[in-house]
Amino acid sequence: MSHDPAAPVLVMGASGKTGRAVTAALVARGLRVRAGVRSDAGARAAYAAGAREMAHVDLVSGVGLAEAAAGCRAIYHLAPNVHPDEVGMATRAVAAARAGGVRRIVFHSVLHPDDHTMPHHLRKAAAEEVVRRSGLAWTMLRPAAYHQNLAEAARGGRLAVPYRLDAPFTNVDLRDVAEVAALVLGSDGAGDHEGQTYDLCGAETLTVSRMAHIASSVLGREVAAARVDPAAWARAQEGRLAPGAIDDLLAMFAAYDRRGFVGSAAALRILLRRAPATWADVLRREALPSPVPDEQSG
Ligand SMILES: NC(=O)c1ccc[n+]([C@@H]2O[C@H](COP(=O)([O-])OP(=O)(O)OC[C@H]3O[C@@H](n4cnc5c(N)ncnc54)[C@H](OP(=O)(O)O)[C@@H]3O)[C@@H](O)[C@H]2O)c1
To answer: How many angstroms is it from 202 CA to the middle of ligand 1?
Structure first.
């Protein structure tokens, strides 16, 4: 079993939105990352995030998992969004970890995985259970929706969502989530975070209307908020998303309509030892154009 602090952390989905952020945060903390990728394009994306070691992994077939996990001290496990085989993926990741002598697993779950109105959340809850029963030293991270999901749309001037504009959200900065991943995995040996489950939410409760208002002010131009008809949204996704994924997301939008998606920022504040980033902070960082270098300053 690898206790070597210099042994790599295997990051699943390292080419994706979350995996790239986690990879960058781990590398910034001086941790060695082995990026779990599916293709050369994925390897390039993980490389751009800072990974220098690649392992080709398919979480559906399990191909490459054993080789990827061997010699790692931890796995940062995540599944692709609304994947029907989330539980199978967690089962295969755990089996590879155990066979490869990996000591720890951090599972990227979601806020309120036990919400029975959202089938893909219940799959996360079942995957958590696989991880809890794995015999590995585990930590669960349960992020709220990321601010980044709407930052690109804000840049485009229109937040169009298939749920009500006055539903409350405590969205979180993905970079804060990744920082927590790095501090949890950087503390190997102390055991502080083992057996812990953390809700990771931002400290502001905002509606999409309010987010548009704030974005208008930060970006200095009009950002509109619009409610899209969920049925029209679903028709537009046909052929782009699997039918099951469309159904899962429609259930999620209906849940958002009923009660939004809110949780507590307490754990994130304690873990980061600072206030979580706000929506305005994320917009300033990610939706404003980069400053043009001043020629005079050379
Ligand atoms: N977005 C949010 O607000 C939010 C909030 C809380 C939790 N989450 C959770 O975060 C997780 C990741 O979401 P994301 O937005 O980062 O997803 P994403 O950008 O779509 O990334 C998914 C990653 O999974 C990889 N992947 C897909 N199929 C695979 C397979 N068969 N085997 C191995 N890897 C595979 C993809 O690789 P390729 O590049 O090759 O496709 C990609 O690297 C999801 O479980 C989601 O529920 C998201």
So the answer is: 21
